[in-house]
Amino acid sequence: MNNQIVVIKNLKREFRMGAETVRALNDVSFVINAGEFVTIMGSSGSGKTTMLNILGCLDRPSSGEYILDGVQVSKLSKSELAVLRNNKIGFVFQSYNLLPRTSAIENVELPMLYNKKYSAKERREKALTALAAVKLSQRVNHLPNQMSGGQQQRVAIARALVNDPVMILADEATGNLDTRTSYEIMMLMQELNTDHGKTIVFVTHEPDIALFSKRTITLKDGKLLKDEINNHVQSARKMLESLPALDESLNVKS
Amino acid sequence: MTLTNLLRIAWRAINRNRMRTLLTMLGIIIGVAAVIAMTAIGEGSKQSIQTQIAGMGSNMIVIRPSSNVTAGARLDNSTVQSLTEQDVIALQKEAQFLNGVSGSVSARGQAINGANNWTTSMQGVSPVYMQIRGWPLTDGNVFTDQDMALANKVCLIGQTVLKNLFPNADYAIGKTIRFKNIPFRIIGVLSAKGENTFGQDQDDVILAPETTVMKRISPTTYYQTIFASAVDENSTDKAANEIENIMRDSHKLKKGTDDDFTVRTQAELINSLSSTSQILTILLTVIAGISLLVGGIGIMNIMYVSVTERTKEIGLRMSIGARGIDILLQFLIESVLISITGGIIGVLLGLIATQLVTYFIHWPTLVTHFSVVVSFLVCFITGVFFGYYPALKASRLDPIEALHYE
Ligand SMILES: Nc1ncnc2c1ncn2[C@@H]1O[C@H](COP(=O)(O)OP(=O)(O)OP(=O)(O)O)[C@@H](O)[C@H]1O
Ligand SMILES: [Mg+2]
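Above: the input entities. Below: the structure tokens describing the complete assembly.
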């Protein structure tokens, strides 16, 4: 079977700003296989978010090829892209992007509302399973403003998981969180990757976060600078345990 | 996206801003309530006018004097004297579409029965008048041709006169009352007729032979009115034409001169009265329509605000797989839900207002299914029409830009 989730060839993305052309991505090629945990690194403005938007079918390349799970993305219409996102992609954002005044479970059910194959009962069951996977079974009916930042991000991860996507994309998913909570999120990501076999692409500019992944792609000025396998993957669980014990209250960041 | 899910999302969004939604609905609520109440009042008065006129005898034709310019200066209609006994005789002889003609004169004065007195009017008519008006007696008999010929001092009294002259409900037939100091023997009592379209009490009248009134009460040789009835309802127009020709002959009017009389059928009266109430209905409906328009613009405005406020939400929905059409439907259904809910509240309010009008002001009202159905339809269309552009704007947002909207 096809093991290649992402195939990118000579990918370019240019933005026209009046007379100027910004080359956000310039001739990037790589392949991501099923079950990989990849971080995309690079300084600010190097094109990480642009890369992730294209991988997530939110944006289309100016030129080059992108095949997602065997589908030629560049030929699809806007509606087809939406369906593809629904079926194959799970997004996790820096600012969580949960619907306000909407309970955790309803937030997690959201992607399934746009997929006719799930009944109301199935939606609820799958949402509960996803919430259990991110260890939030106790917070099913909580509203976003009743949860800590880390918990909100875990709801967002459950939402990304719930549609059984082929790939989870995270853009600075730990950017708003403190060190301890970041490690908790990374621990969850590692579990999803190793225990559930999820393919994960994680954008970050923090080198210590990249240490938790198996592979790091580094961009610079829209070009692929490095693409390295990490032979010393750190365990987020161990890092978490090595942190000095803290008051439980510090763990909860509003 | 299924319809139930869309409805659920829309309902949740509306619930989140209850006060704002209610204020938005207000235009629609007032508009619909106004439509329901106004058409109910309009329809009610139209119906009651029609039944009243039908009660007056729908075959009836009324001839009144009017000024014409051949006489030199145009005179006020009420002072024109042109209807004579010759006219009545000519009509009786020549008309084919008429089965009854009666002249009529009336005079105001005081009627006295012992210690009771009552100011009323006495109308001089011929016996056929009762048939023309479709006005049966409750008691006694109509005066005869002989009474007419001899100008006998006999009379028929209406219910109001009966009540006021005989407050103790004495038996009135055979009693003698005085009108303008002249004694009249009561030979019959008229049945109750109620108010006419103009709010006049038709039972406040004494009927006597026209000869008696024209000789003894207010001496004149002219009628104020001639009443006639067509042979049947369908021939009133033909009868009216015929009357005009006969009357012109009788008055020896030359070709090209105006009539010195007017002929009006009940059908015309119904039409003219219904048309005034129809104009009123149209006017009120236009006002209601304008308030619906204002309500619709209110919805459009709030939907634009809602789309802008929820740009980030739209971006998120798109990123997890909502298509443009899903977003379009979401906002469209939200605006339709607002307008339809406003419509339901408006209809209920309109029904309550209608009941209050009937209860307190005693105006006749009639709520038609048509007005309710049309109100709902208009609400639906308003919701779709004014919700469409904001929804389209939402559906065309770029997911990346929407996600990063602050
Ligand atoms: N919509 C756009 N229009 C014009 N230029 C853009 C647009 N989006 C991104 N760019 C440009 O493309 C380049 C790459 O941007 P991108 O957001 O991918 O960087 P990044 O690596 O995610 O940076 P950061 O770490 O700050 O998030 C930048 O120079 C940016 O200015
Ligand atoms: Mg970025």
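Note for the figure: Chain A touches chain B through 25 residues (CB under 8 Å).
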